[in-house]
Design goal:
By secondary structure, the protein is α+β, with helices and mostly antiparallel strands. The chain is built from three helices and two strands. It has a domain of 47 residues. Strand 1 and strand 2 form a beta hairpin.
């Protein structure tokens, strides 16, 4: 945890101690969520498809499986 100051253009600096604990890279995109009174930054992985595959596993589509599911 760190205390930082909001600059004149509403910018904040992510301190080195926080950067060491997160996989952030320069230029990486993040989700910015406003959950009053909190502001949350969530890093978006460079390869979103790989991150989703890691979360939900291997999903393959087959017509046979779909027919069985519909029955």
């Amino acid at each position: 945890m760190a205390i930082v100051e909001v600059g004149p253009k509403f910018r904040v600096t992510i301190t080195k101690s926080v950067r060491r604990k997160t996989p952030l890279k320069v230029g990486q995109k993040v989700y910015l969520l406003a959950r009053p009174p909190y502001i949350v930054l969530i890093p978006i992985p460079d390869r979103v498809d790989e991150a989703l595959a890691e979360l939900i596993g291997d999903i393959t589509f087959s017509r046979e499986e779909r027919k069985r599911a519909e029955e």
